[in-house]
Amino acid sequence: MPKWSEEMLMDLWMSLLLVWITCVPCVSTTPITGQSKSTQTGGSAVVASGLGEGQRLLSRAKRGWVWNQMFVLEEFSGPDPILVGRLHTDLDVGSKNIKYVLAGEGAGTIFAINELTGDIHAMKRLDREEKAEYTLTAQVVNADTDEALEPPSEFIIKVQDINDNPPQFIEGPYRASVPEMSAVGTPVTRVTATDADDPVYGNSAKLVYSILDGQPYFSVDPNSATIKIALHGMDREMREEYLVVIQAKDMGGHMGGLSGTTTVTVTLTDINDNPPKFSKSLYEFVIPEDLPIGKMGGKVKANDRDIGENAKSTYSIIDGDDQGVFEIITDTQTQEGILRLKRPLDYESKRSYTLKVEATNIRSEPSGGGPFKDTATVKVTVEDADEPPVFSKPMYLLEVNENAPINTVIGTVTARDPDSSTSLVRYFIDRHTDLERQFNINVDDGKITLAKPLDRETDMWHNITVTATEVRNHSQISRAIVAIRVMDINDNAPEFATEYEAFLCENGKPGQVIQTVSAVDKDDPIQGHYFDYRLVPEMLNNPNFTIKNNQDNSISVLAKHDTFRRQKQEMYFLPIIVTDNGNPPMSSTNTLTIKVCGCSKDYIVQSCNVEAYVLPIGLSMGALIAILACIILLLVVLFVTLRRHKNEPLIIKDDEDVRENIIRYDDEGGGEEDTEAFDIATLQNPDGINGYLPRKDIKPDLQFMPRAGQHSGPNGVDVDEFINVRLHEADNDPTAPPYDSIQIYGYEGRGSIAGSLSSLETASSDSDQNYDYLREWGPRFRRLGELYSVGESDRET
């Protein structure tokens, strides 16, 4: 018996299925009274009926469709349309004039029906992945009238799947990472492929995964598509990246199945599996001895094949004969060890150093067994350099008395050249620190002497800077600070702490304390101040005052009796000698002023002046003089006022003389009718510009001569000066009354069409005057007309 392969069996099965679907089944009918019988075969339906024709007409027609779901293969292509199935009804007995009608999804476009036989054909190639099934409606109608003979019935045509879609990796290509040195079987990542074929029907969507490229480093699970480590000891430092090709094949991976591939880029991540390693086992550096503190003397570096944090190292000096002269720090940017100077080098004392430097990884793996390390030897050779002089001390403290004479030696500074070839040293004072040039220094031996007298009370400390310079190389300079303290001597006498002003009550008791006195001294003796107070010899036996020592560098001044009176003596002066305890002692005489005052019963000072004693109301002499002066001033003003009122004539006698007191104006202005430019020169009276017009309202006691003013010519009138002169004359006229009066202006102008408004020069009486015309001159004269009209009406009444 021949052996059939799986592919041959599959092809045979598909051919049989196609024939079974497309063939038309045979149907046998058996007469059954009052019933219908249907038989289904192969997806087509045939309906048979055993009733006679007359009986079918008398009974209600029953539905006679019998079918199941119809199937059609996708992607079927041939020269003729493919038969999907056949429809048949028991009404179709050969003599009936009927036809089949198809409606629904794809009817007429994708599917067509033979109206006479009911055969359904697929007109186009179908794709299950695009549409898996179609729902249609079949109906039997009269071929002539299109009248429905049966109600429509719905059926489904399903598209059967074939393996026409390969697997696809939608999310590919993939990238994954795994730590280096991972164990075999460690999962790396998982890929996923999809197949558009029907996963239910057959094995078209059953996928199997395999690895095409990437062996022997990686493997893939055929079902879950999980990629795993397949080789032990994969080192990132040897190879960091791998490209893996994964295949997915449908039909369960059998022959004839479709396949798809994707790539997975696998990167090995770093772990700390490599120690740092110095590029050399011995480093040699030459460093000049004048290298400043903190400056770099050399660099070392340990390389690490790891990357990132795993490659970072820290450096340290673990051994050597440097004795703390050097230190090494880590440059975080370059991962280098920087050798720096921690203490000064001295070629003359030590010319070489040997150090042992260690580089240690900062980070370690949990299973690494501790941090990785490496060591190297560093040899440092000190190079001789021309160094500046070195002072014996970085700072000198000297003392000198404030009374020391000029050229006194205060102290000495010393410096030496540390080089093997010794050079002489010269000393100088930095005059920026000794602006007043109070000190000098010997350039050869460094002795500091006094150049000017010192006063401790002015400056207690003097800080100067001394420089030392090599004779053979003036650029080599060193500096040292010299602090000079001025020692105190007793050259200041003590004196009162303040200017005391003591007050003594007249009603005081003998022995009462008048004032407590203390002293101060500008000197500052080591043992402190102690002052001795005593009265001057001529005041030792005075009958009024005595002093008492309070044992705290102060004294109390006491009164000896209670018969002090201001009328007898209002002020006493008590000289007191104050002596300090210096060597030699210094003393000064200070005078205490004591005033005798009137006090209350509680010894509260009220008044200390003699004149206040005689005033019954307690007013001082100054207040009394001020009051008397005010009274005299008021009397003088009253006298002058009365005298002027006595000499002043009566100006206004009755109502009829009011207008007679109006001062004469020789001319008036043009008024509102004057449209020409106003000439200010008309304010001057040509007839009396240089004359003096005396007052006419009073008779002066003495003639007042006005001072000559500055007059302008007709073409250059200064109105402001003219008015100021008149104002000054009025203010300084001794004949003027103490009240305001109308001043005389002798000239106002000429050429006014209004004429004169004054009644002094008119020959007519008041009763003959008519002032109604003033109202016609404009608003400026209307008010004047109203005033005159009111005057006339009042006179008539």
From TrEMBL:
Pfam families: CADH_Y-type_LIR, Cadherin. CDD domains: Cadherin_repeat. It is found in: Cell junction, Adherens junction; Cell membrane. Keywords: Calcium, Cell adhesion, Cell junction, Cell membrane, Glycoprotein, Membrane, Metal-binding, Repeat, Signal, Transmembrane, Transmembrane helix. One of its GO terms (molecular function) is calcium ion binding. Residues 89-169, 170-278, 279-391, 392-496, 496-618 form the Cadherin domain. InterPro entries: Cadherin (IPR039808), Cadherin-like_dom (IPR002126), Cadherin-like_sf (IPR015919), Cadherin_CS (IPR020894), Cadherin_Y-type_LIR (IPR000233), Catenin-bd_sf (IPR027397). The chain crosses the membrane at residues 613-640. PROSITE patterns: CADHERIN_1, CADHERIN_2. GO terms for biological process: adherens junction organization; calcium-dependent cell-cell adhesion via plasma membrane cell adhesion molecules; cell migration; cell morphogenesis; cell-cell adhesion mediated by cadherin; cell-cell junction assembly; homophilic cell adhesion via plasma membrane adhesion molecules; morphogenesis of an epithelium. SUPFAM superfamilies: Cadherin-like. Residues 1-29 form the signal peptide. It is a single-pass type I membrane protein. One of its GO terms (cellular component) is synaptic cleft. Cadherins are calcium-dependent cell adhesion proteins. PANTHER family: CADHERIN-23 (PTHR24027), CADHERIN-8 (PTHR24027:SF273). This is Cadherin-8 isoform X2. The gene is cdh8.
